[in-house]
Amino acid sequence: MIKYLGSKRTLIPLILQVMRCFGEARTVIDLFSGTSRVGHALKGAGLRVLANDHNAYAATLARCYVQADREKVHADATRLIAEFNRLPGCPGYFTETFCIQSRYFQPRNGERVDAIREEIRRLGLAPDLEAVVLVSLMEAADRVDSTTGVQMAYLKSWAARARNGLELRVPDVLPASRHGPCLALNLDVLDALPRLAGDIAYIDPPYNQHSYLGNYHIWESLVRWDKPETYGIACKRIDCRERQSAFNSKRQFRAALAQVIERVRAPVLVVSFNNEGFIEREDMEALLRSRGQVVVLENDYKRYVGAQIGIYNPQGVKVGKVSHLHNKEYVYIVAPPGMARQLEPLSVPSTTQKSLFA
Q1: Is position 139 within any domain?
Q2: Residue 188 CB: number of other CB atoms within 10 A?
């Protein structure tokens, strides 16, 4: 899967352990699906997953890794991806914008992206199959980019991987869930809530001012293929200025999250949040207690790779030191009093558990 700031890859074993505490659960809602690492793992564990994200690239990842079923798409995707790997490059919007006006990719790889993306559009594939091949292309481009993992900027000198040739691979699409068809929506979270109901809701909202659209604007343009006007050295989509989320605003965040907590249709909530986020742990616990009893699991977490490198100005000169290299990731579990007792045996090595049982 793509490199992603805020990915919960290292938390997945813990999240699965929490889910197993509720053995009768069949359907999980994933309201901010992002890369769909969590949704993919939940579907792999046999659960029915209902995913949503307001960014098109994230909804496409969810359509591939959550909604699509291997039985229906694998053969066609394998054939198409082999054909795409043989296509010669043809320079177009992607090459001009992200290889010439900026330096995210080597031009020869940009030309291949242009050719393959135009062919995907020409074929007019069924939605799930289209999502699988788009994810294959997105991940192939991610393996040859020249960034630290976000698209706020590109490296001053080419990353070693950028010199490799673009090669598509078949994504790890899972078999159908035995509990029913999975779903991927592309909606604002408040619009998605009335359409989703499950046994557990997994909630992993943005936690600071940095927009995922701004961080991954290239993938948004690759998926939408709308060839938008761009601005700045980073060649961001012009709508990065216009598509603002309340979850990226310190002033609006608490009220927006409170609406989600109040309106989500699931008896159990599993909320992932960071100690660098807009609200403190105590405030989060207070919000969540409106839905039941709360257990908090605390994990040390290595910060984004850019923090490991240091702080640089636009000319590439190091201008400051990062204050800290680790933060804390909290997993809050909320359940009605009767169900909350199922969490009492939860034991996670190297994790601090705070039980709030009365």
Answers
A1: yes
A2: 13
